[in-house]
Amino acid sequence: MExxxxxxxxxxxxxxxxxxGAIPLIHGPIGCYYHIxxxxxxxxxxPVRILSTEMDxxxxxxxxxxxxxxxxxxxxxxxxxxxxxxxxxxxxxxxxENIDNVIEKAKNNVNANLLTISSGGFEGSQIEGYIECLxxxxxxxDEPVEKVNxxxxxxxxxxxxxxxxxxxxIKEYFDKLGIKLNCVLISGCTLHEIKKVPEASLNISMCExxxxxxxxxxxxxxxxxxxxxxxPLGVNATANYLQxxxxxxxxxxxxxxxxxxxxxxxxxxxxxxTNKKAVIVAGATRVIxxxxxxxxxxxxxxxxxxxxxxxxxxxxLDKIIKMRKINPVILKQPDYxxxxxxxxxxxxxxxxGGMGEIGLSAELGIPLxxxxxxxELTFGFEGAIRLAKKIRETxxxxxxxxxxxxxxxxxx
Length: 412
Ligand code: SF4
Hints:
The chain folds into three domains: 8-138, Rossmann fold, CATH 3.40.50.1980; 154-228, Rossmann fold (3-Layer(aba) Sandwich); 256-401, Nitrogenase molybdenum iron protein domain (Rossmann fold, 3-Layer(aba) Sandwich). It has 18 helices and 13 strands. The chain has helices spanning 8-17, 30-44, 57-62, 65-79, 90-94, 99-106, 126-138, 164-177, 191-195, 212-222, 235-249, 256-267, 270-273, 284-296, 313-324, 336-346, 358-364, 380-401, and strands spanning 22-27, 51-52, 83-88, 113-117, 154-158, 180-185, 202-205, 226-227, 277-282, 300-306, 329-332, 350-353, 368-370. β1 (22-27), α2 (30-44) and β2 form a beta-alpha-beta unit. α4 (65-79) packs across α6 (99-106) and α11 packs antiparallel against α12. The two termini are 25 Å apart. Iron/sulfur cluster binds next to loops.
């Protein structure tokens, strides 16, 4: 009843917002638009443009295809976007509005490209939304004229929805290796780049739950092989991520010195962080990466909460748990009460999550590190050092605030 998940529309909107010059137009009532826009603006600390046809009671009873047509023309005139993505909501999906028909009629009256994505909230969670969005974009891609040259050094990231410093550092590593980022699906890419995705030699899935399926689809359709390594979060994971890409593209791994230096720097944090207990609340991709990294720091992930799983999640998590000799409680798709109950029982020192865990942190007085927003560097060798530093500073600040917290009676 207190799920960590949200609706399909959320995932579709995040996907569309990752395309340069695209505007999502929700064919639905104002609530769908308002809450998602509010949340995404808060999370990214910047204005986010999402529009709505603002369906009312009359529209839901009698249909509102004419209104949608009029709104598409209005969006084109007022905002001049390159792409208007018309997204259904629960209301328009349930009454069966014929969006394709409206788009067919409207396309002669507007300059923007138009497409529709089925996004009714009841059709699934945000993960189904990401997958649906990626699948629709795959249909826009140009068939490659020639068979892809396996050494052309062009790579796509699939299921990467954040820009910011993490994406920037991946680009820097790729530059040093002579690898060119062909398209990031979906973060800051243009329609032109999307069409050219099949020219790449390699796809890299960056999301356990939503990246693998589109990669499989593109492997079948365009013959592009793919990797689904753990995120480059932590020294060990960064080295592995880059080494696997080098192997696949016949490149020499040139980061041995950076790796050694980061390992040395990280060692300075281990005596302080050893045996500190952590709760991780995130999607499968971050959960896997953080479980490995926190263990690398000598910390003990005592509770792992997964809101989504991918095809390989169990296998990857199991491998890390065995290798790191840890024994966390794993909660799959838990609700808030379950997490609260386990957290009270296991008395962790720190929580890793996102804005959704602010309440848990406040309720139990346990510090939270937000690993879900994209404004801080967490990837790469440098990201590992920064994150270790942040964990130490957060724990020290907490100790200074509550010097008696080590007392076993602190938690009630
Ligand atoms: S669940 Fe349905 S009504 Fe609620 S925000 Fe999502 S699309 Fe809108």
